[in-house]
């Protein structure tokens, strides 16, 4: 009913708008006022074991897998422990190299996905410790894990995951910072700078939600288009993949995400005049990522693409090459997915609505896939 949906037309839209609160709930009580991580739920794995870990493997499916891709960048950066990420359905069948020094991190909103469950069972048989990041209390995956970090997003009803994704990403940051803290890799003030910034992300997300109309207008303008490209680099790459997945899931449109640097190795050949290309631009900074992505925008624009550019608010470098600019709040590169994903969620939800689809119950999909 409309009441259950809090006045929104879809659970999905309601859940998108719940994200500032959901992120705040994920963060709540997980670091103290000195910025030190306090993850009591990790106590079932000894700090000694966490210090000995020499490899991290992340396994998940669908949107949760993209959260895992973001996590890999953050965890390796903060801990310097090699981190792999793999779709759960591929993991155990290739006989992966795991041993008691491997930490397996699994991400699942429902905690019931069969592919993911089978992957962690396999990891445990090999002696790995398993940490679950999950939204559902007492689900099978957390019950079969050594430790669990609940995302506390509240129930997610829409089949296409939104607040599930954002809170998974936030929980992965907490885990990465915690591992860095336990292993003595980062000084307290560095960790504190990140937790301070994390604490500001709910208000950044709210700012984007307050500007939803711009994205809805864009969806109307593009409602007759059937092919969409998403480009990103570094943590913007999994955001591009997630933006494309959302369009496939609920709008049933052909959408592909690419690592922007791969454009020249193939995908640029499919660009045609008028094709919408969404580009997630890394924040301006000392590394060259930002400038390289700006060049990619020029390259697709030169071939006639309609460029929709997600870029931080005071970045003027893209203006000459953008058809539409979606402004993102200023945030560090590693945390940018928490803001950049939001306009893409809004876009997919609105496009699917305009096309007359059942946004909450897309064809052929299930909220939780309990068969392999
Ligand atoms: C299904 C859903 C996806 C979800 C995936 C993983 O395919 O339709 O939206 O991302 O399962 O679900 P999980 O509950 O494990 O996060």
TrEMBL record:
Q: Where in the cell is it found?
A: Cytoplasm
The molecular function GO annotations come to: glutamine-fructose-6-phosphate transaminase (isomerizing) activity
- Report the enzyme's class at the first EC level: transferase
Q: What is its EC number?
A: 2.6.1.16
Is the keyword Phosphoprotein assigned to this protein? no
Q: Where is the SIS domain?
A: 46-185, 218-362
**Active site per UniProt:** 367
Principal localisation: cytoplasm
Assembly description: Homodimer.
Biological function: Catalyzes the first step in hexosamine metabolism, converting fructose-6P into glucosamine-6P using glutamine as a nitrogen source.
What name appears for this protein in its UniProt entry?
Answer: Glutamine--fructose-6-phosphate aminotransferase [isomerizing]
> What organism is recorded for this protein?
Brooklawnia cerclae
Q: What is the lineage of its organism?
A: Bacteria, Bacillati, Actinomycetota, Actinomycetes, Propionibacteriales
Q: Which residues of the full protein are shown?
A: 243 to 614 of 614
